[in-house]
Amino acid sequence: MAAPSTDRPVRDRFDAVPDDLQRVGAHRADAHWAQGWTNLAWAVGAIAVLSVGGLWGLSQVNSDFQFGLPFMSAAEDDPAAPPPEDAPEAAEPMLDPNIPITVINGTETSGLSSTVGDYLVEQGWEGADFGVGARVTASSSDVENTQVIYNNPENEAAARAMLETLGVGELVLANTYPASPLAVLIGSDFVLPTE
Question: Using an 8 Å Cβ cutoff, are 189 and 163 in contact?
């Protein structure tokens, strides 16, 4: 039996690769220097398109969510711009004693929702069946600005009258409290009016 040969294998034509062939490994060329940046640009673009599309879709489904692009809503945010001609006029304040009202204390002052509720009853907001009903404490006690929240444009006149009664606050048209057509969220800016 012959001993195995320790000589190198004989080179053949497959071992002769031209120097100008520019191949590495299994004939894979070096990646172009910009390939990584191109992939990153595609990823960032896809994230931006999906994010904007998702926010826009959410604004179409949920009317409380407002979505606008800065360059599309510049005219709307300009306080000096005249109101659109088709914008409805603000409703005249009109006390409606029959509208259900919820008073929510958003401050650290204990019992303020009851105090404000009693004040509203004295001012004529207590109807036979509705009036000032729920008097509750908010989940947060650091509300700064008092808000009068109404969930239907038909209640704007009553909401404006509520602002006049309170003497402070801002109007908010939102469905934050669906069970209450008119809600008063008391903030730290509220001071009980004295006669």
Answer: no
Structure token digits, residue 130: 């509705």
The distance between the two most distant Cα atoms of the chain, rounded to a whole number of Å, is 123
pLDDT digits (tens, 9 = 90+) for 138-170: 888 888 899 999 888 888 888 888 888 888 889
Task: Label each residue of the chain as H, E or C.
Answer: CCCCCCCCCCCCHHHCCCHHHCCECCCECCCCCCHHHHHHHHHHHHHHHHHHHHHHHHHHHCCCCCCCCCCCCHHHHCCCCCCCCCCCCCCCCCCCCCCCEEEEECCCCCCHHHHHHHHHHHCCCCCCCCCEEEEEECCCCCCCCCEEEECCHHHHHHHHHHHHHHCCCEEEECCCCCCCCEEEEECCCCCCCCC
Amino acid 128: pLDDT? 43
Number of other residues whose CB lies within 10 A of the CB of residue 79: 4
Answer for the pair 157, 91: CB distance below 8 angstroms, yes or no. yes
Residue 77 token pair: 């945010």
pTM equals 0.53
